[in-house]
């Protein structure tokens, strides 16, 4: 049944994506907030379909930042970017520069003013990312970064990159760590399988600005990994009670 529900959800996801991508092309010629409205609508419809079709809901724990902040989140699946864009109003997500070349997605990402980074550009890329992030913070928006730079399987050894410390040192705003367990439920080859259950995303205690780089990285990794381990244990217990392999 998991495979059947996953296949039906994939059809729903494709339908919603086509309707929003094509139906809101006109929004690209209007103020940015119209594109934000459309993007949040796509996220909302996607998550609704995930719950109604695949039986996969989500829960938000902890306190979201009341103002602009640097959000450093664990990254396990595509769900993370979809959900965080909806949970946080109008954040700027740091994405790979090559994603801007994808038709439709890249167009909307540019209009919504996501922050694209060219990983091959070294220190220059960090400077450009920091400049763009400072502008976002001045607008009162939050910046979302996945500090490991890519998706990690549940339980994989952490691999935190220095880019998050570079932003933390330049933005002078709190950094809010985020733990989650989406990789247990949005899984399989290409993320095809969607298992019944409840994804938990947890906003942890913010890290005030001013720490030294090494201390900040240690605190960030410890908080995220410790909380993530607890959420993974909780998620595996839920999957076991549902009679679904944790994977």
Topology:
Blueprint: H1 2-23, H2 32-54, E1 56-61, E2 70-73, H3 78-87, E3 92-96, H4 105-111, E4 115-117, H5 123-138, E5 143-145, H6 163-171, E6 175-180, E7 186-187, E8 193-194, E9 197-203, H7 213-242
Parallel strand pairs: 1-9, 2-5, 2-6, 3-4, 3-5
Antiparallel strand pairs: 6-9, 7-8
If you had to describe this structure to a student in words, what would you say it looks like?
This protein has 247 residues and is α/β, with parallel strands linked by helices. The protein has one domain. It has 7 helices and 9 strands; from the N terminus they run H-H-E-E-H-E-H-E-H-E-H-E-E-E-E-H. Strand 3, helix 4 and strand 4 form a beta-alpha-beta unit. The longest helix is centred in the last third of the chain and has 30 residues. The radius of gyration is 18 Å and the shape is globular. The model has no long low-confidence stretch (mean pLDDT 94).
Poorly predicted parts: none
Name the beta content range: 15-25%
Tell me about the largest β-sheet: 7 strands, mixed
Give, in order, the helices and strands. Answer: HHEEHEHEHEHEEEEH
Rounded to an integer in angstroms, the radius of gyration calculated over CA atoms is 18 Å
Enumerate how many helices there are, as a single number. 7
Multimerization status = single chain
Query: Could you give the distance between the termini?
Result: 16 Å
With strands numbered from the N-terminus, the spatial order across the biggest sheet is 1-9-6-2-5-3-4
Assign an overall shape.
Answer: globular
| Helical coverage, percent range | 40-55%
Into how many domains do the coordinates divide?
1
Summed over residues and divided by their number, the pLDDT gives a mean of 94
Q: Which structural class is indicated by helix and strand composition?
A: alpha/beta
Number of strands: 9
């Amino acid at each position: 049944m998991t495979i059947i529900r996953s296949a039906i959800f994939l059809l729903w996801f494709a339908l919603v994506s086509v309707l929003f991508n094509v139906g809101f092309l006109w929004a690209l010629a209007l103020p940015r907030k119209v594109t934000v409205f459309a993007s949040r609508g796509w996220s909302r419809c996607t998550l609704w379909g995930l719950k109604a079709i695949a039986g996969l809901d989500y829960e938000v724990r902890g306190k979201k930042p009341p103002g602009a902040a640097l959000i450093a989140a664990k990254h396990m699946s595509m769900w993370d970017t979809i959900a965080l864009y909806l949970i946080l109003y109008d954040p700027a997500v740091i994405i790979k520069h090559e994603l801007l070349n994808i038709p439709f997605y890249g167009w909307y990402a540019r209009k919504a003013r996501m922050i694209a980074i060219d990983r091959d550009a070294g220190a220059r890329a960090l400077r450009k990312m920091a400049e763009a992030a400072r502008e976002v913070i001045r607008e009162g928006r939050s910046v979302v970064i996945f500090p490991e730079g890519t998706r990690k399987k549940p339980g994989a050894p952490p691999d935190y990159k220095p880019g998050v410390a570079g932003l933390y040192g330049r933005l002078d705003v709190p950094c809010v760590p985020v733990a989650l367990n989406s990789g247990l439920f949005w899984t399989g080859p290409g993320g095809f399988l969607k298992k019944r259950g409840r994804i938990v995303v947890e906003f942890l205690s913010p890290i005030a600005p001013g720490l030294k780089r090494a201390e900040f990285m240690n605190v960030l990794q410890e908080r995220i990994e410790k909380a993530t381990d607890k959420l993974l244990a909780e998620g595996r217990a839920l999957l076991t009670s549902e009679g679904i392999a944790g994977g």
